[in-house]
Model the fold of this input.
Amino acid sequence: MHPRSNPLPILLTIIGTILFITGGAGGQPHGGSGVCITTERAALLSFKKGITSDPANLLASWRGQDCCQWRGIRCNNKTGHVTKLQLRNPNPYMSALSGEISPSLLSLEYLEHMDLSSNSLTGPHGCIPQFLGSMKNMKYLNLSGIPFTGGVAPQLGNLSNLQYLDLGRQYYLYSADITWLTNLPLLQYLDMSYVNLSGIADWPQKLNMVPSLRVIRLTSCSLDTTNQSLSHFNLTNLEKLDLSLNNFNHPIVSSWWFWKPTGLKYLNLHNIGLIGHLQDSLENMTLLRVLDLSNNYQNCLALTGSPSNLCTFEMIGNLNNLCSLEILDLSYNYMSGDMTIFTGRLPQCSWDKLQHLNLDSNNLTGTLPNLIGHFISLSVLVISNNNLTGTIPAGLGNCTHLTILDLYCNKISGSVPTEIGSLSKLTSLDLRNNNLSGGVPTQIGGCSNLTFLDVSNNYLSGVIMEEHFEGLISLKKLDLSSNKNLKVTVNRDWFPPFRLEYGNFANCQMAPLFPAWLQQQFQISHLDMSSTYLKDKIPEWFWLTFSQAIYIDISDNKLSGSLPAHLDGMAILELNLSSNLLTGPVPSLPRSIITLDISNNLFSGKLPLNFGAPTLATLIMFSNQIGGSIPESMCKLQGLFDLDLSSNLLEGEVPECFPTESLQFLVLSNNSFSGIFPSFLQNCITLLFLDLAWNQFSGTLPASIGTMTNLHFLRLSHNTFSGNVPPEITHLSCLQFLDLSANNLSGVIPWHLSNLTGMTLKSYQDLTTGDVIVTQSGNIIEITVASQFEEEWSIITKGQKLRYGRGLQYFVSIDFSGNFLTGEIPSEITSLCSLINLNLSSNQLSGKIPNNIGIVHSLESLDLSENKLSGEIPSSLSSLASLSYLNLSYNNLAGTIPSGRQLDTLSADNPSLMYIGNSGLCGPPLKRNCSTNDSSIHTNHRSNRKEFEPMSFPFGLGLGLVVGLWTVFCALLFKKTWRIAYFQLFDKLCDRIYVFVAVKWASLTKIDED
Done:
């Protein structure tokens, strides 16, 4: 019997042998010996030393002996050599690695793959490191999105094994010669997007010498496009070509090289300035899957001078052979045509393959045909910004793969089809800005993946109920706005299945109570419920639920109640509570708020001592009952550019510490502010709009008023300013509106009014369409401003008080009425050719009306009444074709009243009122006729007589009476015969009167007795 042997040592030996063999044959993932090669590890650590910043912690794991285990490193399983360095920035929108690419990488002799893209790395002097050309084994090199400068290193042409080269998104690189590419015989992928190649005329020929290329991306390279023909085409392997954002601007030639590759699957010619007809250029690209010809509207401009009906979809040529087509983008070409005809021209062999069709921003007309239902693979259909009419076809319900359907900004009518509910994969439905009517079908609730729903600006009606929303579990954005007959009615206890991030219900009906279902929508960042007929108190939960919202608008309702004492816990950026019935004091504001509008409410009390909103830019509080003074804390609002506190009960002086660098709109009218003209305004060089009217400001207007050179609107009326009008006011070259009426100003009207070039422009830019921007080019000044002109201003013009809102921005006016101004009307006032209103009434102006007043063709209202003007009325007044109001009453004007044209149509009820109080005037419409010599008589009379003085009349009357009486008395005293005759005549007259009275009395007595 043999002794029993112990099998354990044998078993351990076998296991060890197996582990050794598998480790050497590839069981070890990163190196044959379990650790990387020492020299290569040192090279990587040297590279790490050159990194100055690593906020993404890409190199945090670069510790320990085995570099093959480090993040971004891959080693050969057999040799342990580093073959791959993958350090791409995982988030290109945030910084990752910063520093310099170390030449120590040359020690990685077996490196085949290197990706450093989207990092802030550089080489020597900011250039691509030349030593990269010595890494002979490199097959894959991605340096895209790295901010290199200078020229592309031609040494990259030494990488003879290179198959993939990405230098894209290089906005500061250039290359004057790409001959080095011809030394890369294995190159299949080339991306040099945004590298400036403008100096290379033969770039197509150079690319043609790299026949292995499969992908070429040369987006926005400023390519020279003069020579696009090749004698022999070698790029037979080309599958993907992107030449977008280059400016070809040459008539299309079918022999151009990029029409040649028959194996092409992807062709992007977006925004390259194609000119002419493609004809049959595309017919040989039978394998083409993606075709992007978008944003080539210059094609139409070049051929027709403007996008017109002459520029049709026939220009894209023959598509019949594109049977593999999956994506077709023809957007932003402004080509016209009938939608039904165009749909029929799409290759029928690709109807079941087409996935993406973008026809945005063209001039398509007609209806969307039911034929569209045959495109059963469609996932994206965009036909927005066209002129489609008719209804949405029911056939769309067959496109069950649709994820995006954009038909906005057309003229589509009818109702939303119920078949929409069968599009269960739909994520975005945009039907805004059409003529849709009727109700929203409840079947829309079947779109369970819908995240974006916009049916705003239509004529939808009916009721939106819980049934519409029940299946919309993914909904994030909902816009029902501007459908005034659409009513949202749900039960008070309804719990919505979605969590909105954006909700717009403006100009819908959600009345009268505040919707309770919104209490669960705490993820909303944008909420607009303006003009929704709400008549309720703002619920207490409102401010907590929407504490993280950045935009809230509940204006133009009848909401009541007061605001919480503190709103500082909110993240709001823009809050609009205007035109409601809110009461109570103004609370401390959220720190984050930028725009606040609480105008047209019933807020009272004083402004908060601590506004608590350091970034506040727009503060609109007009038409409330806010009292007290402006607190000093408002001076801390250094970013304030729009402040409107008008029509309140504020008083006291305006603080001199107001922010001056950013202020552009300051409206303090209709309060009880006092003191002198605020001196801080002289430092407000960006100020565009200043209104201090209807207050109690006094003192003189300072010369420094002329430093506000960007001012367009200046209204200081109805105060008690005194002294002269400072001549420096003519330095305000941008001024379009100047109102100094109803003050105590004296002196003369300043000369040099021609410097007010803002009143000479032929057109004025809309001031209500965006952030404030002021630009000047020649004589054209353009202004854009976001929130002003929502208020209405009372302006005295055409003899009455008119209210202007947005129209005020186009109103060019000078009003000096109701002061004590003397002297003549400056003749330079006639150079203000855009003037609409000129009111100099109720002053003490003298001299003549400027003869050439008729050249101010834009003038609609002219009031010079109640002055001391003399001379004739200029005949040029009849040239004012736009004139609708004229008042020259109560002056010293003389001569014949001019007639003709517009003057014969003014004040049709009683035209003489325009000229009343001018005793020297004659002719129609006055009843005083002019004789044949009147003209010369009046002229001589006016030239010799002195101006009428108010005190001369009673003095002359008394003097004449005394002189007349003494003349008669002296004649009777010294001429006896006259004296006897006078008294005899007097006696006879007395006798006759006595006899007449006696006889009359006797006859009356006799009648009484009878």
